[in-house]
Write a structure and sequence with these properties.
InterPro entries: P-loop_NTPase, Rad51_C, RecA_ATP-bd. By secondary structure, the chain is of the alpha+beta class. Helix content is 28%, strand content 23%.
Amino acid sequence: TPEIPILLRVLSTTLPALIEQLAAKPAAKPVKLLVIDTLTELFHSHARVSTATLSQRSKSLNEISALLHSIASKYQIAVLVLNEVMDVMDRDPSADPDDSYDLVYRDQAQFFNRADSIPGERRKEASMGLVWANQINARIMLSRTERLRHLEDTEHRKRKRRRVEDQSSSNDQLTRIRRLSVVFNHVASPQSLDYIVTDEGIATLPETAEFDPPPPPMAPAVVPANPLAVR
């Protein structure tokens, strides 16, 4: 799309010039964070998917990643790239008997595209596939769960004061629990936590025994029925 060359020009020329210009002014605040919201929008297309389009997308992602890594390293700033998620379609393993000895992408994607710390979290996975996953240092998944939590008493009173008189109060004291999961990163093991969003900001919640985090997924090991039939 035309927006991709524009982004490449901004990252290669416009943004570095702005960062250096602000750094040269003692009274100016330096750039410390770069946010791209969202990178996936640039790759939405109604064109038919082909080998050529996939190759061009991979090339563009590699070019964007190289520029972002260069900016982060040279100017010591953090880079946050927002992505989108897709629904995960579980398939019956018996439907593909010929894949029993192959390293199938849909089986490996759970290690870098999905979180699986609570039931239902693995129903979504990150977009842009393995090409983009290979370019990033960390992946964080944010999701809204089906769980609700009663707010603390101080927050109850604040919400009640703002409540409209004719509005039902049955759910006024409940707030939606959200989940943050670090799928992978280059400095620590994957972690997850619950948090809530209130009028006062974001607050983390202590872990409960309701959902014990599952053990880290292990790569599937396939033992062929015939030891000599290895391919």
